[in-house]
């Protein structure tokens, strides 16, 4: 195993994938924690799928094949993030209906434009599920910039972000610009998704923004610890996923998600088992005492 | 202009609601400093909406709101707010400290950490509600009554001159209720208090004045709660049983009135 890991490092595309994956782990840990505690998983899903429309449009308009899809996806992801963010606060429109529509329309536009792109037999799978062979140095640098922004914002705005997520009204009353923070967070979510398109794809990234944080959240209610340990956990998932994908020629993104989901299920099961056993023990102890 | 010349709270012909649907109709209310006003009314009668208008979260369609002479958006530093218990996620990962310190958020700016003064204010507020030793606990580990105390501490941590409480006894047992009322009475020596609830039973001897709210506000600047007031507010017949104790409010409240 150690040998195959070192061997894996000899390939540039695998090294790029590891850099991207480790940076991604930080985004999964921090942004994922906000997504989970703020209960915006569905919004995140909407933004992720909407971004696919931008990928299609970039191909249709014949934009640069390396950056075009990223730029297109960023435009769609950011505008859907702002759109959902504002609509959900300003109107009584049912939020989930709006998100569902944006979700489907984004995917439809992606499929539509790709089909209309002249002379292009393009498979959308790379952008839906990721393809680490597409990762360029530039993608790593972009991701690095985003991670720096995320880290700095989290340090400077931690209390305000946490408070706004916990009780938006009260935060507003004491003078926090909650609407700005809400939109800012959704934009960070959008950019995280966009910059990880090549690594995991728009669909799979959703799993990594929810599973590690909610897994750690089962063991601690300290938000800083959730962020820290879900980053570590994400890094473990990413590295083992990349390694097994390399050794057995698995699909990278899918392997990472299945691994995370598998661990999640096992942990939920074991936790349930422990609590059942404990309550049985307590019952029998009580029976002994009263008997 | 000195703030003392103004009433603590003044609403003039306020109409407010959501989506062209009026929840508050023609509310006129003046509350003097150091008042303890209880407002009762059925669920959906506009109690929380009234608080949101006072807090500046909801803009009234018509009419004016003044808190110590200031429009609500400029009076944030004067108001403490204890929201309804059910309005937030009780499993949210946040420590008691961080909840209480939210009262100082407005002063935080772009500093990543609270100052020593912020922490002292939070400690003082926690001690005031006798929750000093629970600071390091997570909010989710506390009982309903303890969480309610933490929320009151958070409101106090802003150093308010007026405090608004929305259904503060909803999650609290009888014993805790009495102790919170005792605490509020003590607090009332320095701070104006407005408390809204749908439960007539909780409006005890501590409240100085009572109003009834069901879209319209019926308020005579007194503590007397008449049969007419209640019937107008609850739109159903109400039996009011006075137990011979002056200014004591006790009543039978038919459940179908909610």
The chain-level structural class of chain B is alpha/beta
Report the principal-axis shape of chain B: globular
In CATH, the topology of chain B is named Rossmann fold
Largest sheet of chain A, if any?
none
Domain count of chain A, please report it: 1
> For the record, what is the CATH homologous superfamily label of chain B?
P-loop containing nucleotide triphosphate hydrolases
Nearest-angstrom radius of gyration of chain B?
18 Å
Strand content of chain B: 15-25%
CATH homolog superfamily of chain A: ABC transporter involved in vitamin B12 uptake, BtuC
Shape of chain A: globular
Strand order of the largest sheet of chain B: 5-6-7-3-8-9
The rounded distance between the terminal residues' Cα atoms of chain A is 56 Å
Number of beta-strand segments of chain B: 11
- Individual helix count of chain B: 6
CATH class membership of chain B: Alpha Beta
Number of helices of chain A: 13
Quickly name the level 1 CATH class of chain A: Mainly Alpha
Compute the CA-based radius of gyration of chain A: 21 Å
